UniProtKB/TrEMBL annotation:
GO cellular component, one term: cytosol
GO BP: any one term: enzyme-directed rRNA pseudouridine synthesis
Biased composition (Basic residues): 267-277
Organism: Rheinheimera sp. BAL341
Entry keyword Isomerase: yes
Extent of Low complexity compositional bias: 307-319
Residue ranges of the region described as Disordered: 259-336
Database matches in InterPro entries: PsdUridine_synth_cat_dom_sf (IPR020103), PsdUridine_synth_RsuA/RluA (IPR006145), PsdUridine_synth_RsuA/RluB/E/F (IPR000748), PsdUridine_synth_RsuA/RluB_CS (IPR018496), RsuA_PseudoU_synthase (IPR050343), S4_RNA-bd (IPR002942), S4_RNA-bd_sf (IPR036986)
CDD domains xref list: PseudoU_synth_RluB, S4
Lineage per the UniProt record: Bacteria, Pseudomonadati, Pseudomonadota, Gammaproteobacteria, Chromatiales
Chain's role: Responsible for synthesis of pseudouridine from uracil-2605 in 23S ribosomal RNA.
Name listed for the protein in its UniProt record: Pseudouridine synthase
PANTHER family: PSEUDOURIDINE SYNTHASE FAMILY PROTEIN-RELATED (PTHR47683), RIBOSOMAL LARGE SUBUNIT PSEUDOURIDINE SYNTHASE B (PTHR47683:SF3)
Keyword RNA-binding belongs to the record: yes
Alphabetized GO MF terms: 23S rRNA pseudouridine(2605) synthase activity; lyase activity; RNA binding
Amino acid sequence: MSEKTASEKLQKVLARAGVGSRREMEEWISSGRVTVDGKPATLGDRISPTQQVRVDGHPVQIASEEQQICRVLAYHKPEGEICSRTDPEGRPTVFSRLPNIKGARWIAIGRLDINTSGLLLFTTDGELANRLMHPKFEVEREYAVRVFGDVNDAMIQRLRTGVELEDGKANFKRIKALPGEGINRWFHVVLTEGRNREVRRMWESQGAVVSRLIRVRYGDLLLPKHLPAGGYAEYPLDDVNYLRKLVSLAPEVATLVKPEDRDERRRRMASMKRAVRKHDIAAKTPARTPKERKPAQERPARAEGNKPAARKGPAAPKGRPQRQPTGKKPSREGRN
């Protein structure tokens, strides 16, 4: 094996190790925050697993692509969360609930806007995420959508054949009306791409408004039953390899998911629900600010030579003379 084939681009290795995205790593390399074997790194550097990499002076654990296990999570996104890692406005993000992992990072496969809930996939494999999001692979996404407005057959036909949006033509691969009447109706729609707010914009182009939007399926993977909003579950090896096969990637051979029976699965779901409730309570509880201690009042300085007054004993009862001690024991003589 040649040196070039045994090595990888530095920014790719750092992104796989969970330090940050490739774009962020390119910026860090350019700003001199990364060293390789004690020397400042430059863009275009390739490294091997035996070399020592540091970011801001801290060592980074390097793993080859073959050593890293491809993991995939199903996350039940609730409304009100954004799909960024951080938010300057302080809004909750989907990443705050995910389990911590060492030597890798969770990458969102696509996005759901803040008012959309349902199935959101995460993986540790950046190549898998990029391919699943690419339109050329035409991976299906199914949504349950509640539409407010007068929906007729002509409108549904236009949504099937294609409507013009600001960023090009778009159409639903399938659209199915669920039983019900009135101006608030539920539909199931299927897309094979994931443009920004595409489902909402398509309905808005027909004069209707989406009042609820839930992703229920990605490819053949359904939103797991009994998974609470804000909860996650890791897919077993078969489901991981189903996704890899969809986008022409080699199968994974290892997994961290342990087999479990029905009782174990029930206990895990109960534990997940408790964790979700605990997280929700913590998020709603305002942070306590430490109370400022009032400065102690300064006592007046005591003048030199003045001694503190002696403490006085209890006052004698009025109308009765106070006895003086005699030093003798009282006798019983003379008592009646």
